[in-house]
Amino acid sequence: MTLEVGIVLFVLVGAVIMFATERYPVDVVAIVAMSVLVASGVITPQQGVSGFSNSATITVAFMFILSAALFKSGAVVNIGNRIAQLFKYNFWVGILATMVTVGVISAFINNTPVVAIFIPILVGAAAQSKLNVAKMLMPLSFASMFGGVCTLIGTSTNILVSGVAAEQNLEPFSMFEMSRMGIIFFGVGLLYMMTIGIRLIPNRGMDDGLMKKFGMGDYLTEIVILANAPSVGKTIKECPLVRKLDIDILEVKRKGQAFITPSGDMVLDEGDVLKVRCNVEKIKALKEREGIVLKSDVKFKSEEEIALKKKADERVVFVEAVIAPNSPFEGRTVKDLGFRQKYGATVLAIRHRGELMRDKVVTTVLRAGDTLLIEVEKDKLQNLQQLELRGRNTFLIVSEVDLPEYRKDKMLTVVLTLVGVIALASLEILPIMMAAIIGSMFLVLTRCITMEEAYNAIDWKVIFLLAGAISLGVALDVSGTAKLISIFLIDIIGALGPVAIVSVLYLITSMLTETMSNNASAVLLAPIAIATSVELGLDARPFLMAIAFAASSSFMTPVGYQTNTMIYGIGGFKFADFIRVGAPLNIIFWILATLLLPVFFPF
User: Fold this and answer.
1) Fewer CB in 10 Å around end: N or C, the chain?
2) 402 CB neighbour count, 10 Å cutoff
3) Could you give phi then psi for residue 448, rounded to 5 degrees?
4) Lowest mean pLDDT among 27-36, 103-112, 213-222
5) Residue 102 contacts by C-beta under 8 Å, 6 or more apart in sequence?
C-alpha cells in the first residue's frame, strides 16, 4: 500500500465518520476532505475543484431552480389540495392517490420540495378528518423515494452516479434507462405500504391541538409581580426571573395594555402580569422568594382584564414549523439566532430527535427535522413565511396559516418548460445539463421565477457537498485506492460470481446511506463499482445501477434521507418506527435488486 493510498483511506474513513455523526455540516466535511487531498498532493488543485464544474453538480443546481418554479406556479399545491379532499371519504383511497401522485411527480423534480408542499396539506387533512397524521406522512416520504428511482432526474443521486460514469469515459445514464427497474420498485413499494407498512406505523401524531401536542399545559402560565419583588424596577433581561430562574417572558400586561414579545430593555413594574414559559411547579416553589403570585390564585378578574386577555389572544397565533434539511439554522440555538429580535416570534417548545424540549428551548442545538412550536403576532407571521423551505431552505411551516400567493398565470409555461427539458434530454437532442440550464433561464426571462428566487432555490449545501465528494471520488480513482478495494472485494466474494458482488454493493450502499448523506455514499462507492467491473472485465452498468438504486432507497432511519428527516418531528415518530417499517422494505428491495439488476442490465 502506497503513501497516497494510505492518505486517501485515512481521509475516506474520517469523512464517513464525520458524515455519520453529523458533528460538522456535510458540506464542510466534503470541502475539508478535498482540501486535505489537494494539500497532501494526492490530487491536483484542478482535480480538487473539478467537482464544481462537473456536469452532475451543475445539473442538480439547475434542477433545483426548475423545481422551485413549479412550486411557485401553484401546480403541485392544486393537485395536493384535490387529493386531500379524498381523505374525507376514504382513508385508503386518499393515501393511495397521495402515494401514486407524489411518486409520479418525484420522478421528474426534486422530491424534497414535493414533500414540503404535501406535508401541510396532509396535516390539514388529518385534522379535518380526525385521522392519524403519522400514517399519512411516512407513506408520503417513502413514495417520493419510490418515484425518485424511476428516471435520471428523479433524484440528485441518479444524476451524480451518471456523472461519475461520464467522468470515467463511460456512457452516462439516459433519461428513462432506470424506468423498468424503477417502476417495479415503485409497484412493490406501494403494495407493501398499502398491505403491511401502514399497519406497522404506530398511532403517533394524532391532531389534538398544538398546545396539547407539545404538552404546554403546565409550561405556560401568568404571574403577577408584587410590590416587594426583586424584579421591580429591573429590565427584563436583567431581572432575577430571567437570569436566575430561566423563565422566558412572552407577554407583559400593564394598565390596560398588552406588550407581546416585549424587548429585553422593558422595565418591569409592580402589578405587571407576565405570561411566562416555565414549569408551573418551579414557580410555585419560588413565588414567595421572588415576590410573585400565580394569576390563577387571584380570584377576581375585572371585565377590563378579561377583555385585555381576549384582545391579546386574538393578536397571536401558534404555528408548527420543521427545520429543513441543510438549513442554516442547523447547529445553532434559538438564542444564537436571536429569534425573537429578528422575527418577532417566540419558540415555546422543540421536538428534538424524538424528545420534547420545553425547559432548555433557547439553548438546544437545532438539527434538521426538529419541530418548533412558535408563538407569533399575526402581523409578523409573514416574517416567518419568507424564511420557509420554499424560499431559503430554512424551515417549513406546517400549521394551516395563510398560504403564499402563487403565480397561477405562469403555471402552463412552467409545466410546458419542464416537459420540454425532459423531452430534449430523453430524445438526446441536448445533454440533461444544457436542457436544465436553458429551461431555467427561459423561466427567468418569462418571469416565472426571479433571479434572486433562483439563487435562493439552489441548496448550496448540496452543491458544495457534491463538489467536495466528487474530488474524493477522483482521489479514490487516481491513487489506485478504488482498484485496491475492488480487488479486496473480489477476493472475498468473487468466487460467488458477479451477481453476488452486485448484491453486496447494493447492501453496502444501502447500509451506508442509512447513516450518512445518500449523495456522499453514491459518489464514494461509484468509483469502486467501476474499478470492480474493470477487474472482472464486465460491463459497469449493473454495478453502477446497484449504487444508484440503493442510495435512493433509504427507509430504515430518519436521517438517511431528507424527506424522512422532514417528517420525523411532525409525525411524532421515534427512531425505532422507521426501523420497524423500513427494514422489511429495505430487505425486499435488496432481494429485488439482486434478482433483477443482472436481468435489466446484463454483465
Assistant:
1) N
2) 10
3) -75, -25
4) 213-222
5) 111, 114, 115, 118, 140, 143, 144, 147
Question: What residues form DSSP beta bridges with 316?
Answer: 377
Catalogue the E-assigned strands of 53-127. none
47-71 confidence digits (pLDDT tens): 999 889 888 899 999 999 998 888 8
Pairing status of strand 316-323 against strand 371-377: antiparallel
Q: Where are the alpha helices (DSSP H) in 280-360?
A: 280-290, 303-315, 334-337, 339-343
Check: CB of residue 193 under 8 Å from CB of residue 92.
no
Place of cell 429569534: 339
pLDDT digits (tens, 9 = 90+) for 536-566: 999 999 999 999 999 988 899 887 788 888 8
Percent of the chain at pLDDT > 90 equals 34
Rg (CA), the chain: 27
- Please give the angle made by the CA atoms of 322, 518 and 431, to the nearest 5 degrees: 105
Widest distance between CA atoms in the chain: 88
Instruction: Decide which of 342 and 486 is more confident.
Output: 486
The CATH class, in words, for 210-313 is alpha beta
H or E segment and range at residue 292: strand 292-294
Q: Which neighbouring-strand residues pair with 347?
A: 374
Q: What's the average model confidence in pLDDT over 125-148?
A: 89
| pTM to 2 decimal places | 0.81
What Å distances lie between residue 88 and 85, 206, 570, CA to CA? 6, 16, 21
- Residue 344 and residue 380 in contact, taking contact as beta carbons nearer than 8 Å: yes
Return the SS3 of 273: strand
Lowest-confidence region among 160-169, 212-221, 270-279, 470-479: 212-221
Coil, strand or helix at 50: helix
Q: What is the DSSP letter of 496?
A: G
Say which residue the cell 486517501 belongs to.
8
Residue 178, strand partner residues: none
Query: 165 and 530 in contact (C-beta within 8 Å)?
Result: yes
Which of 152-166, 223-237, 332-346, 507-521 comes out lowest in average pLDDT? 332-346
Q: Which of 582, 592, 467, 585 is nearest to 519 (CA)?
A: 467
Give the confidence band of 315 by pLDDT, cuts at 50, 70, 90: low
Q: Can you spell out the DSSP letters for 360-426?
A: STTTSPP-TT-EEEEEEEGGGHHHHHTTBHHHHSSEEE-S--PPPPP-GGGHHHHHHHHHHHHHHHH
Side chain identity at residue 364, one-letter code: T
Q: Which residues contact 108 (CB under 8 A, 6 or more apart)?
A: 151, 153, 154, 418, 422
- Nearest-angstrom CA–CA distance, 490 and 270: 79
Q: How many residues does the chain have?
A: 603
Q: Answer whether residue 593 shows pLDDT above 70.
A: yes
Domain residue ranges of the chain, discontinuous segments joined by +: 3-207+414-600, 210-313
> What is the end-to-end Cα distance of the chain in Å, rounded?
30
Q: Which residue has the cell 434478482?
A: 595
Please choose, from the candidates 307, 313, 293, the residue with its C-alpha nearest in 3D space to the C-alpha of residue 226. Answer: 293
Positive or negative CA dihedral for 166, 170, 175, 176?
Answer: negative
Grid cell, residue 46, equals 484542478
